Write a sequence for this structure.
């Protein structure tokens, strides 16, 4: 689903085994060496155990690929069988003929014995590999032991590899299996990856899939290790869900929030999986006591908090009991009128766009100390919905406050784009954007509207219909880099535009690039190699990933530079 979005050749974190993505850590290599050593003996059992998802099957597949050509292999994935069913499965895997309508323990055992002795005379050997072997019954394990008794001239034609979870070790310690346990020539317990190995593992899979830039920043790899505890299968699940989340938000990189959401979706936690239920209940009880005590301690403060009329209005507004029409004092309204931005009073005939939105203002105090230089501001318009409504007005569209959401832009071919970036890159992108301004406790959403022509270190910021001028230093102090902007797409962008495509989208792309370069416009309908080189050159000039694929980011830069009449920062 997200393969094209990240420009990948194939899906990097599929949980199904794929030899192309084989990654052998030091522990996997050590396990492989133990198994190889055990198979060099004359018959018997080889044991590989480990927790779920640590890569046991991966090690065995790597082992089997190195087996000599004169080795016949029976790979049994379903161990929940009776003795007769298991022997029949071995016959099927090794192409041993038997009478199916007369299949019994004796006839199957005799068929396997005769085949193996004949196989040994031809200089061949056989391996029976059983996955999930902890589910084997005692009687089936005993039957396997009897199969390894087959020999000719002191040579045994069969070896058995048992792969299972930790409980397989405990089962083999049972007294009735002591004879089998004595025949285990090599055993290894596979541990999870270390932090460094898990980082290498993620990078390895991304590289094989063709990733051209770091989708996961290095600090996030530690976060993934913390959640997965170094278990490769969990790493795959977390990375896969995180990339799917990034794709759904049109984000080229995975963020910590996306990883947390992915972990929540697959129901992981940071405990080590060994805590007993009683311990968990104990800590829940302690937490309940702490919360109860905190509530009682805070009660007088909460009462005092709601005795401040203006603060009570703001708090109710957060809970949805009020909207932006909450009345303000007459003096505040007069002050607001002095700083109103008249340019936003548009008479656009576009019908109001219908949807719902959620206000995201989180205010805990009744003063915004960081706006002391602007005492005339009405900060009750500092919700996300107000800011998005203002951004629509910048584009010439009137949208009701209750309908101010990203979905409303689809009618006018306007798309929302959210990112976390720097002021310099936003200037380069050159679109007005909703930004989140935050102090220690306060949050205000505003529109970064213009960079002043005479002094590009000064910026015009809109809060509702009010305009203020702030410095670059002030923005860097209170803006954390998060933004949402609107941009207009010239065509459907459900999939990126790339080499080989033939469509009207290619005609538009070629025309715009030629216009920007001062070249003769040609009606080119095929995305050929020359056009790809033009795209790569454009991407390099604008600090983009130079992969020759026209995705959202490349298209946003191209639209901004090709259409001078759309809103811009500069």
């Amino acid at each position: 689903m997200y393969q094209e979005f990240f420009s990948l050749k194939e899906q990097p974190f599929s949980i199904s085994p794929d030899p192309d993505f084989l990654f052998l850590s030091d522990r996997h290599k050590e396990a492989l060496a133990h198994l190889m050593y055990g198979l060099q003996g004359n018959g018997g059992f080889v044991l590989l155990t480990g927790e779920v998802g640590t890569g046991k099957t991966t090690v065995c597949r790597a082992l089997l690929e190195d087996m000599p050509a004169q080795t016949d292999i029976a790979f049994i994935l379903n161990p929940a069988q009776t003795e007769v069913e298991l022997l029949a499965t071995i016959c099927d895997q090794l192409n041993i003929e038997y009478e199916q309508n007369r299949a019994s323990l004796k006839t199957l055992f005799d068929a396997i014995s005769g085949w193996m002795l004949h196989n040994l005379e031809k200089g061949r050997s056989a391996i029976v590999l059983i996955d999930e072997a902890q589910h084997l019954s005692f009687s089936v394990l005993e039957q396997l032991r009897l199969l390894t008794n087959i020999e000719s001239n002191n040579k045994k034609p069969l070896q058995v590899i048992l792969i299972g979870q930790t409980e397989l070790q405990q089962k083999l310690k049972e007294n009735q299996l002591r004879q089998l346990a004595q025949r285990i020539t090599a055993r290894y317990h596979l541990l999870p990856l270390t932090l460094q190995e898990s980082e290498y593992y993620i990078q390895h899979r991304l590289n094989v899939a063709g990733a051209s830039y770091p989708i996961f920043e290095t600090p996030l790899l530690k976060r993934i290790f913390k959640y997965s505890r170094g278990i490769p299968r969990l790493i795959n699940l977390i990375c896969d869900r995180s990339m799917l989340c990034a794709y759904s938000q049109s984000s080229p990189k995975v963020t910590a929030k996306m990883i947390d959401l992915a972990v929540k979706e697959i129901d992981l936690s940071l405990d080590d999986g060994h805590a007993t239920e009683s311990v968990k209940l104990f800590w829940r009880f302690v937490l309940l006591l702490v919360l109860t005590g905190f509530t009682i301690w805070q009660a007088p403060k909460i009462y005092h908090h709601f005795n401040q009329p203006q603060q009570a209005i703001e708090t109710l507004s957060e809970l949805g009991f009020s909207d932006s029409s909450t009345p303000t004092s007459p003096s505040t309204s007069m002050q607001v009128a002095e700083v109103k931005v008249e340019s936003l009073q548009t008479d656009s005939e576009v019908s109001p766009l219908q949807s719902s939105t959620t206000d995201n203002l989180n205010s805990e105090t009744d003063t915004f100390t960081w706006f002391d230089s602007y005492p005339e501001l009405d900060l009750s318009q500092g919700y996300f919905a107000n800011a998005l409504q203002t951004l629509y007005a910048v584009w010439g569209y009137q949208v009701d406050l209750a309908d101010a959401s990203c979905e409303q832009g689809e009618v006018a071919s306007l798309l929302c784009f959210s990112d976390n970036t720097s002021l310099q890159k936003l200037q380069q992108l050159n679109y007005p954007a909703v930004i989140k301004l935050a102090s220690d406790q306060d949050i205000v959403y505003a529109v970064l509207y213009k960079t002043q022509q005479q002094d590009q270190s000064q910026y015009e910021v809109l809060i509702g219909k009010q305009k203020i001028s702030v410095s670059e230093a002030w923005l860097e102090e209170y803006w954390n880099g998060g933004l949402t902007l609107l941009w207009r797409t010239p065509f459907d962008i459900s999939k990126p535009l790339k080499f080989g495509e033939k469509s009207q989208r290619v005609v538009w792309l070629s025309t715009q690039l030629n216009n920007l370069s001062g070249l003769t416009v040609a009606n080119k309908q095929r995305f050929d190699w020359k056009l790809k080189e033009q795209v790569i050159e454009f991407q390099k000039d604008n600090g983009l990933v130079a992969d020759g694929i026209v995705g959202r980011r490349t298209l946003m830069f191209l639209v901004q530079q090709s259409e001078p009449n759309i809103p811009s920062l500069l």
Notes: The first helix runs from residue 26 to 39. The radius of gyration is 33 Å.
